[in-house]
Amino acid sequence: MRAVVLVGGEGTRLRPLTSTVPKPVVRLVDRPFLAYMLEWLARHGIEDVVLACGFLPTRLREALGDGHRHGVRLHYIVEPEPRGTGGAIRFADEALDGGLGERFLALNGDVLTDLDLRAQIDAHEAAGARATLGLVPVDDPTAYGLVRLAHGGAVRGFLEKPEPHEIDTNLISAGAYVLERDVLDLIAPGRGVSIEREVWPLLVGDGLHGVAHESAYWLDIGTPERYLRGSQDILAGAVRSAVRERLDSHGLAHGAGCSIEGRLRGPAVLGDGCHIAAGAVVGPGAVLGDRVVVEPGATIEQAVVLDGAHVGRGARVSGAIVAPGARVGPDCLVTGAAVVGPDATLGAGNVLDRGMRLFAGVELPDGAVAF
Ligand code: GDD
Ligand code: MG
Is 341 in the pocket of ligand 1 (CB under 6 A)? Predict the structure, then answer.
C-alpha cells in the first residue's frame, strides 16, 4: 500500500523557525521533522511514500533525498499551485498515472504520532468503508476537525474548526486516512479542494468511518509551544521513535567531536561538534543541534538550541527555542516559549518571555528588552 503525505502548507505559525526552512525539514531533536513520519510508516510496512508538495521541494529533497535513510522510497510531486488538502491528493494520483492504487493512505505531514495504522487499516477493511479517519482525543477541538461517531464506527458528523458551542465530543481527525480509490472521484479536478470541507461532508452516512486511537501519541507541531512539547516528548520516550534508542542509561546522546567541560543532565541530545564550557549546564530536556557553543555558567533546560547557535556566559535558555546561527548574549534569559530567530543576535542582559518571537537576522542591543 502507498501513502501520500501532504507537505504543501507554509508553516506560518511556526515562524521564524520556518522562515529559512520549510516545516517538514525543521530539525526536531536530531532529524528532520518529516523523518519521524517516514520511519513510522516504514514500521507499518509502508515503503512507497509520495510527498505532495505545494511548492518547489528543493530543501525537502536536500534533507530527505530518496528516503532510504528512513526506510522508504520517496516520490516527490509538485502542484502547479497549492491545490488544498483534497486537490493535492488527486493531483498526486494523476501525476503518477493512478499510482496511488485501489486503496491508499493519506496523511497530514505536520503531525508527530505513533498511532497504530495497522489497526486502522484492519477496521477500514472490516467495515467495508470508503474512507476511514484516524481519531484522537484532544482537550480543545477548535483548531481541528471534530468527528461525531456513531456506534459501530460510522461518522455521523464532521465539523472542520468547530465553534465552541458546537463541541460535543473530544475526538478529532488526526489527519491520517485510509481511502478507497473512488473517493478521488469526489474531488473536483484542476482546482483547490479542501478534503475536510468539501469531501468528508459528502461521505457522512455514505462510507465515512472513524477509528479512535485513544492511547496513541499525537501532536500537531504547528506552533513553537507544540514544537517544544514534541521535542520533550521524544526525549522522554512518550512517543515511539528511533531517537529514544540512541540515548544511553543517563538519557544522553551526542554526536561526533563534542567537547564537554560542563555538565550534561539527561535527557539531552547534542549534535556534532558542540562545545559546552566549564560551569555550563545542559539539560534536562535539552536539544542542541550541530556546532552549538555554550559559554561558562550558561544553562539550557527544557529547550532547543539549533545548529551553530551561541549561548553566552551566564545566559539561561529555559523552555524556549534558539534558531540556527542565533547568538544569545551574556546574562540573557530566554524563556516562556520565546523564539530567537535564525541568525538573530541578542545583546547582553535581554529577557525574552511570553512567546516573544525575534525574527531572522534581527539584532537587539544590550538590555533592550525586559519583562
Ligand atoms: N500539497 C499540499 N497542498 N499540502 C497542503 C496544502 C496544499 O495546498 N494545504 C495544506 N497542506 C498540508 C499541510 O502542509 C499539512 O501537512 C496538512 O496539509 C494539513 O493542513 P493544515 O493547514 O496544517 O491544516 P490544519 O492543521 O489546520 O487542519 C488539518 O489537520 C488537523 C489535524 O492536525 C485538518 O485535516 C483537520 O481536520 C485535522 O484535525
Ligand atoms: Mg496542521
Answer: no
CATH number at residue 336: 2.160.10.10
Q: Report how far residue 204's alpha carbon sits from residue 108's, in angstroms, rounded to the nearest whole number.
A: 20
Mean pLDDT value across the chain:
95
Structure confidence at residue 15 (pLDDT):
84
Contacts for 219-223: CB closer than 8 Å, 24+ residues apart: 219/111, 219/112, 219/113, 220/108, 220/110, 220/111, 220/143, 220/144, 220/175, 221/14, 221/23, 221/28, 221/33, 221/110, 221/111, 221/112, 222/11, 222/13, 222/14, 222/23, 222/110, 223/13, 223/14
What whole-number distance in Å separates Cα of residue 288 and Cα of residue 194?
Answer: 37
The whole-number pLDDT of residue 10 equals 67
Report the number of distinct structural domains present in the chain: 2
Element (H, E) at 276: strand 275-276
Q: Does position 362 have pLDDT exceeding 70, yes or no? A: yes
Which pLDDT tens digit goes with each residue over 41-77? 999 999 999 999 987 788 899 999 999 999 999 999 9
Identify the residue whose C-alpha is closest to ligand 1 atom 4: 8
Residue ranges making up the domain that contains 195: 2-226
Q: Is the pLDDT of residue 20 over 90?
A: no
* Omega within 30 of 0 (cis) for the link into 296: no
Q: Does one domain contain both 289 and 209?
A: no
In-domain check, residue 236 = no
pTM: 0.94
Q: Cα of 211 to ligand 1 centre, how many Å? A: 19
Residues 198 and 334 in one domain: no
Ligand 1 contact via 172 beta carbon (within 6 Å): yes
CA 32 – ligand 2 centroid, Å = 17
Is residue 237 situated within a structural domain?
A: no
Measure the CA–CA gap between 177 and 185, rounded to whole angstroms.
16
**Residue located nearest, by CA, to atom 2 of ligand 1:** 8
